[in-house]
Amino acid sequence: MSAVEAHLPWGTTTRAPWALEVTPERAGWRYAGLRVLTLPPGGVVTFDTGDEEMLVLPLAGAATVHCDGLSLTLAGRASVFAAVTDFAYLPRDATVTVRGEGRFALPSARAIRRLSPRYGAARDVPVELRGAGPASRQVNNFCSPEAFDCDRLVAVEVLTPGGNWSSYPPHKHEEDRTHDDGRVEAELEEIYYFEVAGGAPGDPGGPVGYQRVYGTARRPIEVLAEVRGGDVVLVPYGYHGPSMAAPGYHLYYLNVLAGPGPARSMACVDDPRHHWVRGSWADQPVDPRLPLTGPTTREA
C-alpha cells in the first residue's frame, strides 16, 4: 500500500448516504470498515448491516437508532472534544434506521456471530490516561475487548493535547505470534479517523495533525500524512505512530480494529528501537490538561 492509498482525505470516499465510506474492499483487506453519516435537522437514513456488525457513535449531535424492534436514544455530544458519548451496537443481518441531526461514525467489522442490538452508556465508558509528559493522552475505551462485547469489532477514541504525541512508542499488530521476549502480537487491520480542534471536516485551510506509518524490510510501507478533520489513514500492517498534535490544536482519532483471531485483542509489539520510552514515563507527570473530557481512571 502506497502513502497515497493509505491516506484518504475527507470527501474522497463519499457514496450516498455516507459522507465517508471505507469498506474492507475499499481498504484492500478483509475485516475492518468505517462509515460516517451526516444528517441535517430531521434527517433519516435506513440501511442494512449485511455481514458486518456496526456501532453508531455520535461525533457531533444526537440521534435515535431503530433496530430489531428496539429504539435506542443517543444523547450524543456537541463535539468529540466536549464529552464522552453514548453509542449503539448493531448486529449483522439487520435493517437499521437512524433519525437525528449531526455527524455519526459507524465503525464496522465482518462478523460471524449475530449478537443483539444494545445501548452503550457514556457513564460506563472506561477512560484511561496513558503515557506521561509529552506522550500523555486520553483513551476512551468504549468498545475495547474488556469493556464491550462484539464478535470481531474493536474501537477506541484517543484525545491528544496540542503539542503531544500519541500512538507512541510506534507499535504493530500484523501477525498472531508470541515474540522471543514474551510480548504477544495479534493480526489486526486498523483505521484511524481524525478530527482536529478548531477545524471541521472538509475545511482545506483547517488545522492539521500528522500520522506516521512505516514497515519492516519484509513488509515495507512508508506513510507520513498531514491530516485534517475527517481524514482517514489505513494501517494494513507495519509500525504506526506517532500521531502528532500540532501545538495549540488538540487531536482526536477514532481507532477501528478487526482481524481473524478467535479472540478480540488489541495485543501489539513496540518497535524495539523505541520500546525504552515506556520506561521513561515513571519519572514524568501526566499532562495536567488531561483528562480533556469525561471521568477517568489512572492507568499506565
Automatic annotation (TrEMBL):
The keyword Isomerase applies. The keyword Isomerase applies. One of its GO terms (molecular function) is 5-deoxy-D-glucuronate isomerase activity. Its EC number is 5.3.1.30. Pfam families: KduI. InterPro entries: Deoxy-glucuronate_isom_IolB, KduI/IolB_isomerase, RmlC-like_jellyroll, RmlC_Cupin_sf. NCBIfam families: myo_inos_iolB. This is 5-deoxy-glucuronate isomerase. It comes from Micromonospora purpureochromogenes.
